[in-house]
Design goal:
- By secondary structure, this protein is α+β, with helices and mostly antiparallel strands.
- The protein folds into two domains: 47 residues; 170 residues, no CATH class.
- The chain contains three helices and twelve strands.
- The longest helix has 44 residues.
- The chain starts with a helix and ends in a 10-residue tail after the last strand.
């Protein structure tokens, strides 16, 4: 009887040890499996961060800043005023409470200054436009496309036929090509960034005199656009 008890006791001990050996790896793997499952669940539940679809300004010159912040920009900011803001008397603005200024500024696009125009509404920068030369235009276009894609293109250039009494004729082409990027802020607000190349060419009054070639201007503009939260129904 004693031998049987010892044998049974030994069998029990052996079974317990075997159970521990078999279960130990499973137990150690459980925390890793739980951590992996938690990571997968987190990846599924967390919403993806939306990539920006358009710029909100040029460097430190961003829509929404106040006039003091604009005037305080320095060379270390990469873009800054070269002269005090002055009232832009040549522009008109339909929106009430808008203050219109102009000044020359330095930008990261060139070592030369550029004319710029600014619109302040309710004390905040609601829009601005910077004139560009051809090199600045191409650089800005390339950098915008690299970061935000090709944008939305509008081309309203048109040909005009120039016809003269001696039978001579040729075409001139005028109009604008623009590329626009939209950054949505809310359901009723977005920032519109547009780069424009505008060309004017006219038929000369006579073939005897010198002909003035096409004149092209280029600029980039940024505007904070608000839409009506409760638009009126279309009656048509």
């Amino acid at each position: 009887m004693k031998k049987c008890r010892r044998a049974a006791h030994g069998f029990i001990r052996t079974s317990v040890i075997a159970t521990i050996i078999v279960c130990a790896p499973f137990a150690s793997a459980q925390p890793k499996a739980k951590a992996k499952a938690a990571q997968q669940a987190s990846a599924v539940t967390q919403p993806a961060v939306a990539q920006p679809t358009g710029p909100t300004g040029i460097g430190a010159l961003k829509l929404g800043i106040d006039q003091d912040t604009l005037e305080a920009l320095k060379s270390a900011d990469g873009i800054y005023l070269l002269e005090p803001l002055t009232i832009d008397v040549q522009r008109t603005e339909a929106e009430q409470n808008a203050l219109l200024y102009k000044a020359r500024i330095m930008t990261p696009l060139s070592t030369d200054s550029a004319p710029a125009r600014f619109t302040f509404t309710s004390g905040r920068l609601a829009g601005f436009t910077v004139d560009l030369d051809e090199n600045q235009f191409q650089q800005a276009m390339s950098q915008l496309q690299e970061k935000y894609g090709h944008g939305s293109v509008t081309d309203d250039r048109k040909d005009e036929q120039c016809i003269y009494h001696n039978g001579a004729s040729f075409k001139v082409n005028s109009g604008a090509v623009s590329r626009r990027w939209i950054q949505r802020i809310t359901d009723t607000e977005h920032i519109s960034a547009t780069i424009v190349e505008f060309t004017v060419d006219i038929c000369p009054p006579s073939l005897l005199g010198p002909r003035i070639g096409p004149q092209t201007s280029r600029f980039i503009s940024f505007y904070d656009v608000h839409s009506d939260a409760n638009p009126k129904p279309n009656p048509f």
